[in-house]
Amino acid sequence: MADLIKHLTKKQKEEFFDALNYMKMDEIKEFCHKHSIPVSGKKGAILERIKHFLVTGKILQPKELPEISKAKSGKKYPLHAETPILSGSYKNDTATRNFLKKIIGDHFHFTAFGQDWILERWQKGKPPTYLEFANFWQKEYLKRKNSEANPKQEWAYLNFMRRFQKEFPEATKQDIAKKWEKRRKEEVEKAQLILSKIAAK
Can you tell me the distance from the alpha carbon of 48 to that of 54, in angstroms, rounded to the nearest whole number? Predict the structure, then answer.
C-alpha cells in the first residue's frame, strides 16, 4: 500500500502529525482498531505506529522484549536493592514507592522519565536493579530541578499550558482550561478530517 498522506505538503504533514497529539487515547485507538494497528504501550508509541502506517501503509508491530528482561512465571522478586526490575514483576504501587523512598528519600515519586528509562533498559536486554534505578532517578531529578525538561510532544496539554502561561502569565486556570478545550477541539477536528478520509478508502 502506498503513502496514504502523499497528497499533503510537507508543512501539512507536520501540522497533521502535531494535531494527532491532541487526540485522546480512545480517539486514537478507534482509528487503530479500524486498521488493525496494535494499541499496546504508551500514547507516543501508538502514535508512531499510526504515522508509520500512514506513510508506508504497513503495520508496525510492538517491540518484543528480550527474555532476560521478563519476570519468570511463579518466581518471586522481593523489593531489595540488588533485585532486578523486570517486566511483569515491577509495579507502580504503594509498596514499591515506599521502598524507593527508603533508598532515595521522601522526595521520590513515580515519573515518566523513570518509566521511560526502565523500558529502554528492558528493550536493550539490560534490566536494572532497584539500586541502579534509584541512582539514575536521583541524578535525573537533580538535573531537572536546575534545568526543566520539555514535556514530550504527545503531552499536548502540558506543552500548551507552558506556552500559554509564558505568553499570558496573569491567566487563571479557568482561562487556560477554556483556551485548551478550544485549541484541542480545533486540532482534533483537523486530524480526524484527514483520518476519516483515509478510513473511507
Answer: 10
Rounded distance between C-alpha atoms, residue 125 and residue 119, angstroms? 10
Tell me the three cell numbers of residue 126: 539490560
Q: Which residues are CB-neighbours of 2 under 8 A, at least 6 positions away? A: 57
pTM of the entire predicted model = 0.74
Question: Cell numbers at residue 1, please?
Answer: 500500500
Distance, CA of 89 to CA of 72 (rounded, Å): 9
CA distance 136 to 155: 23
**Helix ranges, 36-129 (H):** 43-56, 94-104, 112-123
34-79 pLDDT, tens digit per residue, is 999 999 988 999 999 999 999 998 999 988 999 999 999 999 999 9
Q: Where are the domains of the chain?
A: 10-63+187-199, 67-146
User: Angle at the Cα of 112 (from 109 to 113), degrees rounded to 5?
Assistant: 95
Q: What residues does 129 pair with on adjacent strands?
A: 84
